[in-house]
Design goal:
The complex is a heterodimer of chains A (140) and B (281). Chain A has 140 residues and is mainly α. In chain A, 55% of the residues lie in helices and 0% in strands. Chain B has an 8-stranded mixed beta sheet, sandwiched between helices. The chains are: A mainly alpha (140), B alpha/beta (281). At the A-B interface, helix 3, helix 7, helix 8, helix 9 and helix 10 of A face helix 5 and helix 7 of B.
Chain lengths: 140, 281
């Protein structure tokens, strides 16, 4: 058995590179901390009884959670790009749109700036090309 | 002695579970996806394993933000399909293999892989969709399953190199288990997809196919791919492919290709699927 030499990775440059990816928020520790209560709120919607309370009065349900006002407004507006900026993670946020009866395809299309029809057609045609989408700095 | 005989890589897109559960697999949109798994369904019927070690990620189902284990092994007798927000999938209960699971956990920890041991856990689409794709819709799954959940949601996930090495450690653990068991290991998730932000919908068929090809034969170049490359080339959720490397690492130095399939799209995602067997060390 050969064990490759262990390479050490500089955490600062590791994290800095993530900001160079166009249109993407990588779920780093910083975002995980910022969005902790937001994501835990979303997680609570996995229970049927919580979904009922949520549907009956969304604003009142949110008052039980220590979210910032900005996070609450973005949740009520279903502004998923904003929620990503405020520390939300898509797998947690999926509990919100699942409760709304939306599929991943529907919810994800709202972040792409395209209509559902246009987004679906793009996917059927092979998806979004990586050309020009890899790096902001290097424009590739 | 127990032995790992084969490895499978497969996407675990939740929409595939929906298509299977609601009998949509013959519809024009889904037919080419399911057709690619027909070969494997037949092959699995002819080579039924005793146990599948199923590497997957939990999607904010069993684990919330409170506890984030990097590598967690399911040691329970049974695992219930989870309610992910729209009720549990109507698929069979997953039967574990606690003896082998605990043996792997103990062996890996002594081998310097500090596994988290899970004694109670529901399993989400990441685990049940691959079972549906490989086994269809039986009344009971044909084998025992050891869930191995990997954190690929909160950064940093484990490196590809670490995943490969864990696969090697799992193979050593299995080979030291005294009972004669036919064990398969499945790596699931991917392939290219991005479920968030303005770049959502990214697909990179060329990269995905090079990854599939890289799993075959003697090369170990895939273990050195860095996280940033998965992110740039295959979308933010393409990082799930590191889990396939646990499967590849467990197959030893050399693999032989039995079956390969690639299709775009299933929902937001590129579907990739490969069946490999060990080709000797």
């Amino acid at each position: 058995m050969t064990v490759p030499a262990k390479r050490s990775i500089d955490i600062h440059s590791y994290l800095a590179e993530f900001d160079d990816i166009p249109g993407t928020r990588v779920f780093t520790a910083k975002r995980a901390r910022q969005g902790y209560h937001l994501n835990q709120f979303a997680m609570s919607l996995m229970k049927a009884e919580n979904r009922e309370r949520w549907k009956a009065d969304e604003r009142a349900y949110l008052e039980d959670w220590t979210l910032t006002e900005e996070q609450k407004e973005a949740v009520l507006a279903r502004d998923y790009n904003r929620l990503l900026d405020l520390g939300g993670n898509i797998y947690f946020l999926s509990k919100i749109f699942s409760t709304d009866g939306q599929s991943f395809l529907q919810a994800v299309s709202t972040m792409s700036g395209m209509s559902l029809d246009d987004y679906s057609a793009m996917m059927i045609a092979g998806g979004r090309s990586p050309a020009g989408q890899r790096s902001i700095k290097e424009k590739r | 002695m127990a032995r790992i005989t084969a490895g499978i890589g497969s996407s675990h897109v939740p929409a595939l579970g929906v298509a299977s559960d609601f009998n949509k697999s013959e519809e024009a949109y889904w037919k080419p996806v399911f057709a690619g798994y027909e070969w494997t369904k037949t092959w699995e019927r002819e080579h039924v394993p005793d146990v599948v070690i199923l590497v997957y990620n939990d999607h904010a189902t069993a684990f919330d933000m409170k506890i984030i284990p990097t590598f967690a092994i399911g040691c329970a007798e049974t695992f219930q399909p989870a309610d992910e927000g729209w009720g549990p999938r109507q698929v069979p209960v997953v039967e574990g293999h606690p003896d082998l699971a605990w043996h792997i956990a103990q062996s890996c920890i002594l081998d310097e892989f500090d596994m988290t041991i899970i004694n109670e856990m529901d399993v989400d689409h990441g685990l049940t969709v691959p079972l549906s794709m490989m086994f269809g819709k039986p009344d009971a799954w044909p084998c025992k399953v050891i869930p191995l959940a990997v954190n690929v949601v909160t950064y940093p996930p484990p490196s590809g190199n670490r995943c490969w090495a864990l696969g090697e450690a799992i193979a050593r653990a299995v080979e030291s288990y005294p009972e004669d068991l036919n064990v398969q290991i499945w790596g699931t998730g991917g392939m290219s997809h991005q479920l968030q932000g303005p770049r959502a919908g990214l697909i990179n068929a060329e990269w995905d196919n090079a990854f599939l090809d890289g799993l075959v034969g003697e090369s170990d170049r895939l273990r050195h791919i860095e996280h940033i490359e998965y992110l740039r080339e295959t979308g933010s959720e393409g990082i799930e492919m590191v889990m396939w490397l646990i499967m590849r690492g467990a197959l030893g130095q050399k693999t032989r290709l039995l079956h390969k399939h690639y299709h775009v799209p299933a929902s937001n995602t590129a579907v990739g699927h490969i069946v490999l067997e060990k080709a000797g060390d």
